[in-house]
Amino acid sequence: MEKKALLASALTVLAMTALPAAQAGAMSPGLSPAPVPTDTGASPPAPTDMTSPSPTDMTSPSPTDMTSPSPTGTGAMTEPFGPACASLPATGEGSLEDMAGKPVADAVASNPELSTLNDAIKQAGVAETLNSAEDVTVFAPTNDAFDKVPKDTLDKLLADKEELTKVLTYHVVEGKKTPENLTEGTLTTLQGGTLTVEGSGEEFTIDDAKIVCGNIQTANATVYLIDGVLMPK
Fold first, then answer.
1. CA 139 vs CA 1, 33, 184: distances in Å
2. What segments bear the compositional bias annotation Low complexity (predicted)?
């Protein structure tokens, strides 16, 4: 009896020892039970910085000045005007570009619309005086303007150098006059007399002559082509 009791006890101990092993064997091979965290309520540590790195400057570079440059003297007329401007050569001698690079007497000489005036300048010997002048305005009679003068009167004028010089310098005033300056009323000429100016915009008269192409630039002068020859009073 005693042996049977000991055997039963040994079997009971053996069965109890084998039970955990049998339970472990029921688990999938190679899988270990997940470790229980020490503190299940703690949140996982946040990364040091999850935000995308900001560039030093995400704004577009601003140019020093995005505004268009304002011309000096807003509203001032800068281009030649008048119906006779269309008759000037588009390129080459006598063109606006050609005249802009020459002193005024040379510019007149290159312009086919001013050939009679060029002859008068040569006859009077004032080409160098005009070329060396600083900042003048010339009211230049066109060939058509000289054609209005009776031939005998014109021939007599061209033959009298002193009188011709007076007439030519009566067409010149100091300073490069813009169209806006032509509303002054009167202008003093190099001859010493005065010119009466009337008009505005693109319509002007100088004494009794009309401007037919104005605001032409040369190296030292502003030129206004006129349809009449001005005679000193």
1. 154, 110, 16
2. 48-72
The reply to whether the predicted model has a pTM over 0.70 is no
Cα separation, 201 vs 27, in Å, equals 104
Q: Mean pLDDT for each 10-residue chunk of the chain (233 residues)? A: 48 49 44 45 47 46 39 57 94 94 97 96 97 97 97 95 97 96 90 95 94 97 98 91
Distance CA 169, CA 163 (A): 10
Domain positions in the chain are 83-226
Contacts with 103 (C-beta within 8 Å, 6 or more apart), sequence order: 130, 131, 132, 218, 219, 220, 221
Alpha-helical (H) ranges within 72-214 are: 96-100, 104-110, 115-124, 127-132, 143-147, 151-159, 161-169
CA distances from 3 to 6, 7, 12 (A): 5, 6, 14
**144, 147, 140: which is closest to 225 by C-alpha?**
140
Helices marked H in 27-150: 96-100, 104-110, 115-124, 127-132, 143-147
Q: Which residue has the tokens 């100088």?
A: 206
Helices and strands in the chain: count of H runs, count of E runs: 8, 7
Q: Which CATH architecture has domain 83-226?
A: Roll (2.30)
CA-based angle 164:165:166, to the nearest 5?
90
What pLDDT sits at residue 222? Answer: 98
